[in-house]
Design a protein that fits this description.
Number of helices: 5
Number of domains: 1
Radius of gyration: 20 Å
CATH class: Mainly Beta
Structural class: alpha+beta
Strand content: 35-45%
CATH architecture: Clam
Number of strands: 11
Helix content: 25-40%
Shape: globular
Oligomer: single chain
Distance between the termini: 59 Å
CATH topology: outer membrane lipoprotein receptor (LolB), chain A
């Protein structure tokens, strides 16, 4: 009996030690928005993000497909204002998109094509989602996702799980990491097991915190 109790105490000590190790961080999906102090922190963050008149930067997108041995990597730049979202793929091919007034336009070789939501719902949904993400609209996010938020001293994490059945068939979850008012990493896990990861960088200095 004493031996069993000693082993239990050792296990508890081990778990407590692991939890206190510097760098071990809680899972954002254990922190739904609306519990604890994360509501106030998220409100402060959304206010800071929405104060930005324009955001410009570069991205590297890496897509991991189970049917391919190597990931697909694309690079480019983007710019976002309150009225317009431009996404420019520059490598390994040139292609750009413009999302404004809920209308998506594809631009290739100088020719423009309107992308209808019914024809390419996943592509249209991507731009609609990223517009709300970079503007960090809580209302828009909560219309489509269960929202989780984990604030931090240097970085914050946002977790999203689709509510709408149609979206849930394609997307399992999204994990967004940011610093200050900037998004630095997005991981999208698809229901199929494929995943897409995006790294963002910004040439201009980050605006001061409010």
């Amino acid at each position: 009996m004493k031996l069993r109790m000693r082993r239990v105490l050792q296990l508890i000590t081990l778990l407590l030690t692991w939890c206190c190790v510097p760098g071990v961080r809680a899972d954002v999906f254990d922190h739904p928005l609306g519990t604890g102090n994360n509501v106030t922190a998220f409100s402060t963050l959304t206010t800071e993000v929405q104060r930005q008149e324009r955001v410009t930067g570069a991205f590297t997108q890496t897509k991991y497909l189970q049917i391919l041995d190597r990931p697909l990597v694309t690079r480019g730049s983007f710019s976002l204002s309150r009225a317009n979202f431009e996404w420019r793929i520059e490598s390994p091919f040139a292609l750009s998109y413009q999302f404004a007034g809920q209308q998506l336009t594809r631009i290739a070789d100088g020719a423009q094509q309107i992308v209808q939501p019914s024809a390419e719902p996943a592509l249209y949904g991507f731009f609609s989602f990223f517009t709300s993400l970079f503007n960090l609209s809580q209302e828009q996010l909560e219309n489509a996702f269960y929202v989780f938020f984990l604030p931090g001293t240097d970085t914050w994490e946002l977790g999203l799980i689709p509510i709408q059945p149609q979206l849930a068939k394609a997307v399992q979850r999204l994990h967004i990491t940011g610093s200050g008012s900037r998004i630095v990493h997005v991981k999208l896990t698809e229901a199929s097991g494929d995943r897409t990861e995006m790294e963002f960088s910004y040439p201009d200095p980050q605006p001061p915190a409010p």
